[in-house]
Give the backbone structure.
Amino acid sequence: MAERLSGKRIFLTGAAQGIGLAIAEACLAEGAKLFLVDQDGTLLDKTVASLAAPKGHVGHATADISDGAVITAAVARATAELGPINALINNAGMNVFSTPLEATEEEWNRNFEVNVKGAWNCSKAVLPGILAHGGGAILNIASTHSFTIIPHTFPYPVAKHALLGLTKSLALEYAGQGVRVNALAPGYVETQKAIDYWNGFPDPAVARATTMALHPGGRIASASEIALAAVFMISDECPFMNAATLVVDGGLSQLQHPA
Ligand SMILES: NC(=O)c1ccc[n+]([C@@H]2O[C@H](COP(=O)([O-])OP(=O)(O)OC[C@H]3O[C@@H](n4cnc5c(N)ncnc54)[C@H](O)[C@@H]3O)[C@@H](O)[C@H]2O)c1
C-alpha cells in the first residue's frame, strides 16, 4: 500500500515527547519528511536519535515557538534541509492551571504566548512557502478545553478556545489558495503533561483513577491514538475538511454526567 504522507514535508512543534513524538513516529511511518522543533533541546536530541527514519527524512532545531524570529529562522532551515514545507502541525503547548482570581499576569501572558501566539508564529512562518507552492495543510492541536471548562484550570482553556479562533481565521482567509487549516481536539491523553496534572493532587493515583472512571470506556487515550487522527487530517484523504475540529476523547464530551 502507498505511504499516506509521501511528499509531505512537515514542520512539527513540541516533538520531543508525548503527543508530538507519537505524531512524528506515525508521520515517518507514512513516508513524510519532518522538521521537529522543541524548546527542550536536550530531550529533542535524544528523541531524534531514537527515531527510526531514513537518512535525510528528519531535521530538527531547538526553538521556543513564542519567539517569532527564532521560528522564522527554523522554518528557513527546515526548507533548506527538506525542501519547501507543505504542512505544519502546531502541537507544542503548555498547561497553565489556576483560577481567575489567583492567576498572575505573567501566567496569563505566557499561556497566550505559547498556546496561541506560538501557533500563529509558526503559521506565519510557513504560510508564504505553502502559498507559493500551491497549498498545503495546517493542523492545530487544540483540546476539549477548546469548548468546555474544568474549574481551576484557568487560563489554559481561554487560550485553547482562542486556538480554534485562529484555526477558523486562517482556514477562511486562505481557503481559495489550496490551504486547509483544521484543529484536532484530544480529551485526556496519557503523556507527561497528564502525569504532571495528576501529580498536582494530594494522591496522584486516586486522581488518575478518577480521570479514568470519568470516561465512558473507562480509560483515556494513548498518544499514538491521537497521532492516528493527526495523520488522517494532514494527509490528502480529507481534501474538503477545512476550518473543522475533530474531537478524539472517547466520547467524554458527549456525556451528560458520570453514570
Ligand atoms: N496530554 C493531554 O491530555 C492533552 C489533551 C488535550 C490536548 N493536549 C495538547 O496536546 C499538545 C501536546 O501535549 P502533550 O501532552 O504531548 O504535552 P507534553 O508536555 O508531553 O509535550 C509538549 C512538548 O512541547 C514542548 N513545548 C512546550 N512549550 C514549548 C514552546 N514554547 N516552544 C517549543 N516547544 C514547547 C515541551 O518541551 C514538550 O516537549 C499540547 O498542545 C496540549 O495542550 C494534550
In short: The two ends are 43 Å apart (CA to CA).
